[in-house]
Amino acid sequence: MRPGPVRGLGVGDDRPATTLTALPGDRYLLCSDGLSSVVSPAALRDTLAAEPGCGPAVDRLIELAYAAGASDNIACVVADLTR
């Protein structure tokens, strides 16, 4: 997995969407602010790098959000590009 930037799109965000070239071995996280507002970008990266499967990564990210006191809905998808 390549270390990559953490990027977000939100209401009122003036930055244009970014286009990335997806490569085998990349891992993507799509999540709501219920996760990203309470779990730091470093913790997101560390968790995605440490968990071998998508399901365990999602489970751990949700655990981290609850432990941090998430008060909003938590939605996340982790996807690994295999080819």
Low-confidence stretches: none
Distance between the termini: 13 Å
Structural class: alpha+beta
The 3D shape can be described as: globular
Biggest sheet, strands in spatial order? 1-2
Polypeptide structure, described:
- With 83 residues, the chain is an alpha+beta fold.
- The protein has a domain at 34-80.
- The chain is built from 3 helices and 2 strands, in the order E-H-H-H-E.
- The protein has helices at residues 33-36, 41-50, 54-67; strands at residues 27-31, 76-80.
- The chain has a two-stranded antiparallel ribbon.
- Helix 2 packs antiparallel against helix 3.
- The chain is globular, with a radius of gyration of 13 Å.
- InterPro entries: PPM-type-like_dom_sf.
- This is Serine/threonine protein phosphatase PrpC.
- It comes from Actinoplanes campanulatus.
What's the gist of this structure?
The protein has 83 residues and is α+β, with helices and mostly antiparallel strands. Helices cover 34% and strands 12% of the residues.
Name its key features.
single chain; 83 residues; two-stranded antiparallel ribbon; 3 helices
Task: Give the topology.
Layout lengths: L26 E5 L1 H4 L4 H10 L3 H14 L8 E5 L3
Helix pairs in contact: 2-3
Protein name: Serine/threonine protein phosphatase PrpC
